[in-house]
Predict the 3D structure of the following.
Amino acid sequence: MSAPLSKESSVSVTREDQQKINVFARQNARLQEMKDELERNAKELQNLEDASDELLLVDDAKGRVPFRVGEVFVNFTPEMAQAELDELKAMYNNEKESLKKQVDGVQGMLTDLKTQLYAKFGKDNINLEYDDE
């Protein structure tokens, strides 16, 4: 069963076309979520870099540095705090690389779907562009 696209268009939307449009919509939403996660990841990495820089300013080598673990602060030596920061930075960098690979894969899929859908319906009959408001 197919429905006409518009009064002016003679192209009808098939079940397969509707499935492609639905896949595009879901993947586009997923892409936006991944981009938001990348942004949060970049902020967290910047915070860790700032904390690492501040840790270098600690004068007393025998002093303790409050370090947040979950919901509480634990007093670490500067060396232990730096080791924890380095470990967290490595974890966030790995996560960032993984997310970038996923984003690239989804963008490739979206480009392919756009090409197929625009070829069938034309750019005037279907809008597959993301609006940033």
Summary: The chain has a mean pLDDT of 87. The two ends are 36 Å apart (CA to CA). The CA atoms of residues 20 and 26 lie 10 Å apart. Residues 78-121 form the longest helix (44 residues).
